[in-house]
Amino acid sequence: MHQNDLMTTRPAHANPSNTDVLIVGGGPAGLAAAIAARQKGFEVIVADRDRPSIDKSCGEGLMGDGVEALRALGVQIPAAESFSFQGIRFVDSGSRVEGGFLSAHGIGVRRTTLHRLLLERAAKLGVQFSWECRFTGIEARGLSFDGSLIRARWVIGADGLDSMLRRQYGLDSHLSGSRRFGFRRHYRIAPWTDMAELYWGDACQIYVTPVGPEEICVAVISRNRQLRLDQALPMFPELRARLKCASTFGTERGGVTHSRVLRRVARGNIALVGDASGSVDAISGQGLCLSFRQSLALADALEAGDLRQYHRAHRRLMAKPLLSSSLLLALTRHTWLRESVLRVLASDPGRFARLLSIHAGPRGSRESDRHAVVSLVFQRLNGSD
Fold first, then answer.
1. 183, β-bridge pairs
2. Homologous superfamily of the 3-77+111-177+261-318 domain (CATH)
3. DSSP labels for 200-216?
């Protein structure tokens, strides 16, 4: 399908449009929600103020559970446009530990490529799009977009961290929250490993994700909104040396990453999905996967006609990534704890692989397994093995 066919905007007009599901936000979360709803037979309109393809600063790695969720949405990522990575490597002050995935591999893929693939799938299923269409308010009969009214049985907010729809419908109240800042750049260089890498430092962390046979994505994340890759790389001499002769391309993109749990993600006929519905710190690597799995759960709830079902499912889906991100953030704050935990993992690579399967493996891991990483950290806090 030609890209121009996917960018056709429904014409604005005075008469209202009607649909089963109206999705505000055409990024990966909104498109995944649209696909999942269409797979249940609902008529869907996606409205977004931008035009494809929509880029965003992110690490561009999908863990095994994210790949599985995409498969359930009918989206396959071509090998020629991605890179399959087999595990995760942690690097800290000269020490390193790596673990391979026990089941499904991960995939590194450019954000724009992922967006295009989701868009193609949505268009093939018959989703309608309204690009360059700005949400302007709630009316008694529906939602207004630049003077055009759209009526819908269900309204889905997929408009990101600063969701206007969330605020308009009074769903902005949250239980907890923290904020960090990330910047991403692409380098033209062949990946030197089949692992995604996380370089640990006291001031920041750097993620390296292979996204093609001659391309990697490098992202820095910290609490310092001013810290860019050029300032961060000297803190990691090994990585800086590897990138010394590599050329960069594209623009360095920045963004905010939140850990935030909302009190409610649904009310009446309104539901939130993706970052609009709460989020975990990017250190977890689970943001996109959460969006995809939430979309599948939301479609089930729409089919059942009960958004309370989605609220419960959303809580379950968030539990493991929130736990993982909280513990990984603890390692960023306490150098002694990080060094101790990494020593334990280095001494038993099989343990690291098991923890990875709990964190990002396909669905079906036992509930008790989710607390294995908690036990490990508390063991180190107590000074025992």
1. 220, 254
2. FAD/NAD(P)-binding domain (3.50.50.60)
3. E-SSEEEEEEEEETTEE
